[in-house]
Design brief:
single chain; 172 residues; mainly alpha
């Protein structure tokens, strides 16, 4: 892209860069100005790596900036401020709690192990940052299970069964 085209594209997508910066700043608790600077850097990276024969610039730039900010946010994550962080309160109706306990007891041993990892807070068990994306959590879970000696077939089967069991709960 020429300098003129880059400037035109920047003016066209500046609001999107601000939006992505705002989302990332609130997620990783960084100053929005820092995140916006990183978004602009990623925009320039996208502009220099863009090839017209591969599709629209806006789509390409969006993916580069969004994924780049997600990675940057994980690397620059701040621990939550104890004064601002409030532990969420989850009060369940006793009947619902009993149904959940029964559901957990009826799961296979492997699925129960995965469910307990997720329910007990995957950050500590899987050694992932506070602002990890779902994809990063999934990858860490797969690595954790493989590290325990599970074969891929067992990992995929367990995750598939877990998804189907969760879908059954959501229907109720």
């Amino acid at each position: 892209m020429t300098k003129k085209e880059t400037t035109e594209q920047f003016m066209k997508y500046v609001k999107l860069l601000h939006k992505l910066s705002h989302q990332t700043a609130s997620r990783c608790e960084r100053p929005e100005a820092d995140v916006y600077g990183q978004a602009c850097f990623l925009f320039m990276k996208a502009a220099s790596g863009y090839r017209k024969d591969r599709g629209a610039f806006g789509t390409y730039m969006f993916v580069v900036v969004k994924n780049g900010l997600a990675s940057w946010g994980v690397k620059n994550d701040l621990p939550p401020d104890p004064e601002m962080y409030v532990e969420p309160q989850h009060e369940q109706h006793p009947r619902r709690a009993l149904e959940f306990k029964e559901w957990l007891a009826n799961l296979s041993e492997e699925v129960r192990e995965v469910a307990m990892i997720i329910l007990n807070g995957p950050m500590e068990i899987l050694d992932i940052p506070f602002a990890a994306t779902p994809k990063q959590v999934r990858g860490a879970l797969y690595r954790y299970l493989r590290g325990k000696g599970w074969e891929w077939k067992k990992v995929w089967g367990t995750i598939r069964e877990m998804k189907s069991q969760v879908a059954l709960i959501e229907k109720e």
